[in-house]
Design a protein that fits this description.
- The complex is a heterodimer of chains A (554) and B (597).
- Helices cover 22% and strands 32% of the residues of chain A.
- Chain A contains 8 helices and 24 strands.
- In chain A, helix 4 runs parallel beside helix 5 (268-287).
- In chain B, a hairpin with a 2-residue loop joins strand 22 (527-543) and strand 23 (546-566).
- In chain B, strands 1, 9, 10, 13, 14, 17, 18, 19, 20, 21, 22 and 23 form a 12-stranded mixed sheet that branches.
- With 597 residues, chain B is of the alpha+beta class.
- Chain B has helices at 13-16, 23-37, 54-70, 144-175, 206-218, 290-309, 324-334, 454-464, 520-524; strands at residues 4-7, 77-95, 98-116, 133-138, 193-195, 228-244, 249-266, 272-281, 316-322, 366-370, 376-377, 380-381, 398-402, 405-406, 426-427, 435-436, 440-445, 470-482, 491-501, 509-511, 514-518, 527-543, 546-566.
- Classes of the chains: A alpha+beta (554), B alpha+beta (597).
- At the A-B interface, helix 2, strand 2, strand 3 and helix 3 of A face helix 2, helix 3, strand 2, strand 3 and helix 4 of B.
Chain lengths: 554, 597
């Protein structure tokens, strides 16, 4: 089945699935005939291409129009009661006009496009009016930006010039649009039911829940002839609780569910059950002993805990982001100078493959057929047996990588285009089972006369462990501890101290920035510092909370 | 931004000139301005009273519990208040006859004020007013458990903030030299009880506002030279609840509808020209009739067209006539902000008027009151109307200047030398600490001529001073004023329609790019006489305590001297291609017309 980055996965009826199936392997021959917005974009594009020029200035060599139409329901509850619920729809336009040529152009500073709101109504002239205004602004800024860029370049010596923009074949690919069409009542009630669980534990200080449901339809047109249209839906649910241990240490836990189709979300009752589970772990944490002051030794990360580490230290560093003007580095990331060098242990390989739509039946959000710049998605091998062999690229080249590999994505809300992750897949060629990893952890501790090792099951923000266990050498028992932090964890730790990985892969899907997935195994480090967190402990509340008047689970 | 107060009119020059090329953010900012400022306007209407308000009961109960529990601690709070702003905001934004976005937000904001120490010296002293307030979000329904829980959380967090600040202040006052104004930090007042509880009228449906912005933004479609235009309609239904440890219990409902229409164009030299029309009323059916709104939108378009080709004004210093609306904005900026009570005490404030009580500060024929108890003035609904201020004090008519002599200031419960009581002007948006603010500022005059004779009076003065021309300010968009000591004590207002009036019988000539500048005391002493009709300007005013709706009303005024400067502007050209729908028309060549010198 074909899917652009934007295609709806809320394939609401069998018919659309069927049609999408038919379209496999060929560009969809849908036309813009019934789409006034696309027609308006085409009309202004034609006019701008033919006529937009200031006397004495060069005409644009490239123009693109991007409209992102968002229909969103956001709601939030706390302590069993709804606090907000807002439905909003808006369309955001970004127009990029480039003057100069592919070698050197105006995409710089003010020349990176103009952003405006677009009408929601089917009104040709009003739609064109916004496009007209934005194109005019973007063209003028482009001319000023090119001059500014050239002036700056005159001050610099550039040894190895890199083109500003790569060429790409035009594509024409229209997908059906997505709709947010749902009965919100059960979901709003679910938010209240989950957050109402605070009544079951008087020591819980905060319990919030929220949902964010959105349908995002995207329209893209460029002066080279590319036309793209498609829609997707995302359904996110999140809840979090907070408590304090007797000594005042703040303890937080949160839980998220995210799906591309409403039917793939767990049923409301199941989500409430997850809430009860989370409350249970908060209680366990409250009663858990403090982590020892300092530990240096092996640490095992579950696949879930590993995903945020890998996202940050691998995901961010494989992006082929062009460095600031005049800087000779290849990219902006920590691996800017690591091309063809070892960046990970030699048993680890990393690919990014937006062409895969699922893994073992689990959907991959980073799936698309064409990226947001109209370049066909491709599987990119990034790290081959530990060695960095490629970067993810949009149409902005970096040194040594002159063309896009189909990873140009537009990040909301301003829809700035640039390289992004699709489905980042990290595998070990020597993966072992979870039990074996645990066994290995214990063996390593034994060798070093350590009474226990650490197992991190989940992490919170800034990679602070939330569920962290001591794994005792003598009997393999796992004991929850609280108040720990990892002393040294960065890209180098991954390269030097990662010694084994699991064979089972887990999928984490994310919607923030651009929809993406990270697929990875559990990982074992042979040496890592785990310290007691140096955070100040707040006093417990000065007086007890108000006693609930209504029974829990109203 | 302490010390910088802006009458923020959405889309005003200041917002325009921000470097954010990000229309959505601009729109969101507009929404915020509208959202936060509204709530105290509209006329009182008949409502079915709701007995035994559940929310008030929860607030009182939790407040008592907090008082009992925190009272045992050291330092103990001597004052607690809980407030709730229950707001339903409906918003529609459109342009060119179409809708950009629309939404409805229901929100209950909670504010918890804790004062630690004594009324003489407490945690709000000096620069520490923010230490006395914490804010959060409440459930939408009267769920007493969830509401009490949130107040509990806010209260113990706020208590920590307040007691920490108080301990620092106690030490500081012992270490530092005695302050010039030794007034107490909190005034003694009588508790208030007013339960206008609380079925405010329903706010209009989203669809009604959507149709407003579609209808009125469509008027601007036919003008190719209006490059950009926006219509925004907001409706707010608002109920405020307030309880305090002194025993006050207040609930007041309100509704307000606002329509804002903005058009802009650009002159050949790059100057952006913006005109705004706003309409507001308590309810949708109180807005002016369709025909009146339509004609004002048409005038807005005609003004913009005329402004495009108007010549640039030169720096000028001489006689000038301000229309009533222009004079109202002028008084709000130049005088009103400087009469806010807390500015007389702040060690960083310029204190232009602090020591001028019982001295003349205006010509003797002028008097100024601030009267938030007025819902209308000569039939116009006033935006600065309210029953109780945000410290739970009853709104009161306050004579600020009587026959040119300064009598009083706009007082919150923060006393200043010789003014120990609030006069019901402690205002804030939800979540911020109230300070003395304007409500309905009304200027009256005993030395007036008929409005029709003002132009001749201006010409007489021009001749007398032997100037080539005088200036007539028909409309002023807004302005800002600086009151901090380290800044020049100056103001700037942003006139949008200014005419040169010649003494030799030539027709008046529209000019563009004028800013009025000056210092407050000098400017105010140069008023010679006024017209006989009072005009009202309704708007939203921003300052340290947030955005609040205000009105200013004044007659037209003749000044013997006003100083204007050239306005800085962008050099960007008008659009290169004609707007869609006008491809073949001469309007496409707008760049060729207009007067360039």
């Amino acid at each position: 089945m074909t899917r652009t980055p934007w295609q709806s996965t809320l394939a609401a009826c069998a018919l659309s699935l069927f049609l999408a199936g038919l379209a496999f392997g060929q560009s969809t021959k849908a036309t813009a005939d019934d789409d006034l917005l696309l027609q308006a974009m085409q009309a202004e594009m034609q006019r701008s291409k033919a006529q937009l020029k200031l006397e004495g200035m060069s005409a644009p060599y490239y123009i693109d129009y991007r409209v992102v139409d968002t229909d969103q329901l956001a709601a939030e509850a706390a302590f069993g009661a709804l606090r907000t619920s807002v439905r909003a729809r808006f369309r955001i336009l970004r127009v990029i006009v480039r003057v100069g040529d592919y070698k050197q152009d105006s995409f710089f500073g003010e020349g990176e496009g103009d952003v405006e709101l677009m009408p929601l109504d089917e009104d040709m002239l009003a739609l064109r009016h916004q496009l007209w205004m934005a194109t005019d602004k973007a063209y003028k800024s482009a001319n000023e930006a090119l001059t500014a860029k050239q002036a700056q370049l005159k001050q610099l010596t550039i040894d190895q010039p890199v083109d500003d923009f790569s060429r790409a074949e035009p594509v024409h690919h229209l997908e059906p649009l997505s709709r947010l069409d749902l009965n919100t009542t059960p979901w709003l009630k679910m938010l209240e039911d989950v957050s109402g669980l605070y009544k079951t534990d008087p020591k819980v200080e905060a319990f919030d829940s929220s949902l964010n449901f959105q349908a995002i339809n995207r329209y893209f047109l460029n002066s080279e002839g590319t036309v793209l249209r498609g829609g997707r839906t995302f359904y996110e649910i999140r809840f979090s609780g907070s408590t304090q241990s007797e000594d005042g240490m703040r303890l937080d836990r949160s839980h998220e569910e995210v799906a591309e189709e409403l039917k793939d979300l767990p049923a409301p009752a199941k989500i409430v059950a997850e809430g009860t589970k989370l409350l249970g772990t908060l209680k366990q944490l409250r009663e858990a002993p403090l982590a020892d002051e300092e530990y240096r030794g092996p640490v095992l990360f579950s696949a879930d805990a590993a995903s945020s580490v890998l996202l940050e230290f691998v995901g961010d560093n494989v992006l082929g982001l062009k460095p600031p003007l005049g800087q000779p580095a290849r990219t902006k990331g920590a691996w800017a100078t690591s091309y063809q060098s070892r960046v990970l242990p030699d048993f680890v390989s990393v690919v990014d493959d937006p062409t895969e739509s699922s893994l073992d039946g689990k959907p991959l959000f980073g799936h698309y057929e064409f990226d947001d710049e109209g370049v066909k998605a491709s599987k990119v091998s990034l790290v081959d047996n530990g060695k960095l062999v490629n970067y993810l690229l949009g149409r902005e080249p970096i040194r040594g990588f002159p063309t896009s590999n189909g990873h140009g994505r537009a990040k909301p809300p301003s829809n700035y285009p640039g390289p992004s992750l699709g489905n980042l897949i990290i595998r070990s060629s020597e993966g072992v089972s979870h039990d074996e990893l645990k066994k290995k952890l214990i063996e390593m501790c034994q060798q070093r006369d350590l009474p226990y090792g650490y197992y991190a099951e989940t992490l919170g923000p800034q990679r602070t462990p939330r569920l962290l266990y001591k794994v005792w050498v003598k009997d393999g028992r796992e004991e929850l501890v609280r108040g720990a932090t990892f002393g040294d964890l960065d890209a180098r730790t991954l390269r030097n101290d990662l010694i084994a990985a699991g064979s089972e892969l887990e999928v984490s899907n994310g919607v923030l920035n651009v929809p993406h997935s990270i697929v990875n195994p559990a990982i074992l480090f042979d040496e890592m510092e785990v310290k007691r967190a140096n955070q100040n402990k707040e006093k417990l509340p000065d007086y007890p909370p108000p006693p609930p008047t209504q029974a829990s689970g109203k | 931004v302490s010390g910088l107060e802006v009458i923020v009119y959405p889309g005003s020059e200041q917002e325009r000139s921000t470097a954010i090329p990000w229309l959505l953010l601009r729109t969101v900012a507009i929404c915020l301005v509208l959202a936060t400022g509204i709530g105290a306007t509209g006329s009182p209407r008949e409502r079915a009273p709701e007995k035994n308000n559940a929310l008030l009961a929860t607030m009182q109960q939790e407040l008592r519990r907090a008082q009992q529990n925190l009272g045992k601690l050291d330092p103990a709070p001597y004052f607690l208040s809980y407030s709730v702003y229950d707001d339903t905001l409906t918003l529609a934004v459109g342009s060119q006859g179409t809708l950009f976005t629309s939404s409805r937000l229901h929100k209950r904001s909670a504010g918890v004020v804790v004062r630690v120490g004594t009324p003489t010296l407490d945690n709000t002293h000096g620069e520490n007013r923010t230490s006395a307030i914490s804010s959060g979000t409440l459930p939408l329904a009267d769920d007493s458990d969830a509401t009490a829980r949130e107040f509990w959380r806010l209260t113990y967090e706020e208590y920590r903030k307040a007691s920490r600040a108080y301990l620092n202040i106690k030490t500081k006052t012992q270490v530092n030299a005695q302050e010039e104004d030794t007034s107490a930090d909190f005034s003694q007042e009588t508790p208030q009880s007013h339960e206008d509880s609380t079925r405010a009228e329903d706010t209009p449906e989203q669809a009604a506002l959507e149709s407003l912005v579609r209808r009125y933004s469509a008027y601007l479609r036919k003008y190719p030279e209006i490059y950009s235009s926006t219509a925004i309609a907001t409706a707010q239904r608002s109920v405020r609840y307030f309880v305090s440890s002194e025993g006050s219990v207040i609930a007041t409902p309100n509704t307000e509808v606002r329509l804002f229409i903005e058009g802009s164009t650009r002159a050949d030299d790059g100057m952006d020209l913006i005109r705004v029309e706003t309409f507001q009323a308590g309810t949708l059916d109180h807005l002016p009739h369709d025909a009146e709104i339509a004609s004002r939108v048409e005038k807005l378009a005609a003004d913009l067209k005329a402004l495009r080709s108007a010549p640039l004004a030169e720096p000028y210093d001489g006689p000038a006539l301000l229309s009533g609306r222009a004079a109202a904005v002028y008084f709000h900026e130049v005088l009103g902000h400087r009469l806010e009570g807390h500015r007389q005490r702040g060690e960083k404030e310029g204190q232009t008027f602090t020591k001028k009580v019982n001295q003349p500060v205006l010509p003797p024929f002028l008097s100024v009151v601030d009267d938030p108890t007025l819902a209308t003035l000569n039939g116009t609904e006033l935006a600065g109307w309210y029953q109780y201020d945000d410290e739970g004090m009853p709104a009161a008519r306050t004579v600020l200047i009587q026959d040119g002599v300064l009598k009083s200031f706009l007082m919150s419960r923060m006393p200043i030398k010789d003014f120990t009581k609030s006069n019901g002007h402690g205002r804030a948006q939800s979540g911020l600490m109230p300070t003395g603010r304007q409500g309905n500022l009304i200027v009256s005059s005993t030395q007036s001529v008929k409005d029709a004779d003002l132009r001749q009076k201006l010409i007489d003065e021009v001749k007398k001073q032997n100037k080539p021309y005088g200036l007539y300010f028909e409309d002023i968009q807004g302005g800002f004023t600086l009151t901090e000591r380290r800044m020049p004590q100056s103001f700037e207002v942003l006139p949008v329609l200014v005419w040169k009036v010649y003494p030799d019988g030539r027709p008046d000539e529209l000019v563009r790019g004028v800013d009025i500048v000056g210092t407050p005391l000098g400017a105010l002493s140069r008023i010679m006489l006024t017209g006989d009709k009072v005009a009202v300007f309704n708007g939203v005013c921003g300052a340290e305590s947030g955005s609040v709706p205000v009105s200013a009303a004044a007659p037209a005024m003749l000044f013997s001297e006003i100083e204007v400067q050239k306005r800085a502007h962008s050099l960007a050209r008008p659009p290169i291609l004609p707007p869609p729908g006008f491809e073949g028309t001469p309007a496409a060549q707008t760049t060729k017309t207009g007067a360039r010198k």
